Each structure stands twice: as C-alpha cells, then as structure tokens.
Amino acid sequence: MKRIYLNENENEKDFIIERKEKQYKFPKLILIMRSELYRGMFLSVTEDKSNKVTDYSELSNKSFQIFEYWIYSNQIKDEIEITQEIINEIKIGIDYFQLNQTNPNLFDLLIKKFNNQNQNQNQNENENEKEKENEKENCLIL
C-alpha cells in the first residue's frame, strides 16, 4: 500500500478528500480496509456513490497528513514532530474516520513517538546543562 502512496499513478486513487487548500486522493479499497466509515459509505446500497468528501475541518494539515500516511503504510513518518495538540486532533480523527484497530494502532504509535521525542529532548537538555557546568568549572580553574 505504501507503494500506492508513493506512486504518481492517479488512476489508482479513485476517491478525493478535499480540504481548504489541497485535495488528497485515495484508492477506495484502502479506505474500505482501514475505515469503518468508508466501508459503510462505499459498500452500502444507497444512491449516493460520490467520489469526494469535503470535511475534516477539525484536523490541521499536519494531523491530516499523519492520517494520510498512516492509512497507506501503518506507520508515522520519522520527521513528523508530535505535539499534544496533534495527539488531541488525532483522537478526534480516529473517531471521525472510524479507523479499524490495527496492529500497530495509530494512537499507540503517536503516544510512543511523543514520549520518545520528549525523552530525547530531556536528554539533550541534560547534556547541555552538563556542558555548561563543565565550562563554568573550566573557567574557574583558569
């Protein structure tokens, strides 16, 4: 599925989620696999067979991009920085998308990445403090 995400062949992507400034294209099959909402939408016997949705206004672009990548890959991009605000938006989005609980679970991955980021940041801050203390000690010795 990640191959489809990276693939420029737009013919495979037959559903559009339209946001204010951008259109996100997905294959319906992937949305059916990942989301109860879209499974019901695409597999129901209703008259409405629209190929476009224009909502998700509660999600920031960054949060929506996390969903987009996760829907294709079951992963979170390494370069994405997770904040508490994003975690709160993702909680809303998981309910809105009615995401299937997969392994790994999107929310669990976000929390793990958030905790790792904070731990790394704390380690860096501690190292910087030690360096400053060493510099002060070295200045006193001279």
Automatic annotation (TrEMBL):
Q: Where is this region: Disordered?
A: 118-142
Q: Which SUPFAM superfamilies match?
A: POZ domain (SSF54695)
Q: Where is the composition biased (Basic and acidic residues)?
A: 127-142
Instruction: Please report the stretch or stretches of sequence annotated as the BTB domain.
Output: 13-80
Instruction: Output the Pfam families linked to this UniProt entry.
Output: BTB
> What is the recorded name of this protein?
Kelch repeat and btb domain-containing protein
